[in-house]
Amino acid sequence: MAIILGIESSCDDTSAAIIKDGVIGSNVVANQTVHEQYGGVVPELASRAHQQNIIPVVDQAIKRANITKEDISAIAFTRGPGLLGSLLVGTSFAKGFSTALNIPLIDINHLQAHVLAHFIKEDASDESHPAFPFLCLLVSGGNSQIIRVDDFNKMEIVGQTIDDAAGEAFDKCAKVMGLPYPGGPVVDKLATLGDSEKFRFNKPRIDGYDYSFSGLKTSFLYFLRDELKNDADFIEKNKEDLCASLQKTIIDILMDKLRKAAIDYDIREVAVAGGVSANSGLRQSFVDHAKQYGWNIHIPKFEYTTDNAAMVAIAGYYKYLAKDFCDKSVTPYARATI
Predict the structure, then answer these.
(1) Which residue of 1, 55, 259, 317 is most buried, as measured by CB atoms within 10 A?
(2) What are the C-alpha distances in Å from 154 to residues 115, 116, 315?
(3) Quick check: 31 pLDDT over 90?
């Protein structure tokens, strides 16, 4: 049996997980609430919190999986992309622990891990994963990409944002409205109470499968500025409708390009991953597209949408089977693609 310990520390969540032959054994996440008062993640505070959380989180992951540290076959860790200070904590711990246990070390690309989260099994009989090849819409606070996946370790970005990510658009527009951080989930909740057709916002015209969200953020800001001149309570009076209209616009932008890619590549296996995949409107849009276009869709469980070590461990499991290990001299990287 291959037992993989996964460690995730790319941003502000410290997480450790155990995967046993592809089956989830545990997935422990320690969140950092300190950033809420700043309206965004403060890198220095994040790295300090990781130092406090890493040992207890790994300890709990091992105990909940009902194994001992001597049972672990290899350690997989997020090498990047992410916040360098945060990544250093996870990387350093993984190196030290693998040295102490004398077991292989596996470096994981954070973006690939999000895609492979679809292959985490709840039990040995779980076969609900996508079939190759499939398209994956990866949407988060830092990334918006359409990825063609031909194998566990063979992926190609066919489209990506040329400026801001969808998650960033959600958060920044929420901040303009005075909503708490993180803004994405708040917008989603309020959107369920509003009219998505009440307001219309401009959509970018970008060739191919690439995205752009900076123009939407700017137009949203200017729209509110102009309306507030006439009515100082405009946002409060229209909060639900604003959120619903904003959410619909972002989802339309995302799905228009994904739909085009699915048609052009003649692929009907379509998945979504990343933090924004928890958005209820996006999930419903996937269901609607499945009915209309005959897609076989794959939507991750909520616990595998945001940053978590289970996705790192499953990515590590398939690299372990391929004997794709890394040297202990590797260093983390802040920026990277698939």
Answers:
(1) 317
(2) 11, 11, 12
(3) no
Q: What is the pLDDT of residues 212-244, one digit of tens each?
A: 999 999 999 999 999 999 999 999 999 999 999
C-alpha of 297 from chain center: 17
Instruction: Read off the tokens for 38.
Output: 């700043």
Report yes or no: 179 and 186 within 8 Å, Cβ to Cβ: yes
Residue 35 has pLDDT above 50, yes or no: no
Burial 277-308 (b: 16+ CB within 10 A, else e): bbbebbbebbeebeeeeebebbbbeeebbbbb
User: Among candidates 254, 224, 252, which has minimal Cα distance to 238?
Assistant: 224
Q: What is the pLDDT of residues 84-95, one digit of tens each?
A: 999 999 999 999
- Amino acid sitting at position 115: V
Whole-angstrom CA distances from 315 to 78, 126, 177, 304, 319 are 10, 17, 38, 13, 6
